[in-house]
Amino acid sequence: MLDSTLSVNFGENLTSVISTAAIYRALPIAYGIQQCSEEISHEACVVDCQLKIFEANCSCTLPNGRSRALDLNTSTSLDRLKTCGFEEISLCSAAFASIKDKVKDECSDNCLSACEHTRYKQLKTVGSSINATEAHFNISIWTFEYQIFSETFVWTFESFIAALGGLLGLWIGLSFLLLLRFVITPLLYLVNSTCSAKTAKHQ
């Protein structure tokens, strides 16, 4: 993965060429177990979990709280939450600060990672700038071509039936249609016998 932060010092000229190396897609459910999330990333899930616990402890609702992170160390976060009552938010923030790290760890353990991950490549060069009081950024895209790796089941229902039919024909000389005939024929005979017996009884 590529660090999302690009930094440069004054007097430097940063040239960064970025491209997508590959995209990895996992099955959301495998063997009946949910292994990843298709709707929300792990980071967003952790934030949402923290907000829900904060709301439960404060017994109030944070408007639009689901779409932003809650930083209890800054006053601007408290200013955004005045609709819940400033005094309530202040008291809850002080009480929540002592368990914030524990809550974050619990939420991180309970949240699933995203089913899709993107890996990037970066070619970065740093040169001297013309002016020591300036910093220059040059960011460009290398290519829009990339590979996609998707997790799939080794056996699908169609491939399993095809393999089963091939094995039956190879080892015991039976075709899948003939095997179905052995099952359906007795059933048809049973149905016909039952209908005949009911007809004779009514007569």
UniProtKB/TrEMBL annotation:
It is found in: Membrane. Signal peptide: none annotated. Keywords: Glycoprotein, Ion channel, Ion transport, Membrane, Sodium, Sodium channel, Sodium transport, Transmembrane, Transmembrane helix, Transport. One of its GO terms (molecular function) is ligand-gated sodium channel activity. Belongs to the amiloride-sensitive sodium channel (TC 1.A.6) family. It comes from the Eukaryota. The chain crosses the membrane at residues 160-184. This is Uncharacterized protein. It is a multi-pass membrane protein. One of its GO terms (cellular component) is plasma membrane. InterPro entries: ENaC. The keyword Hydrolase does not apply. Its main location: membrane.
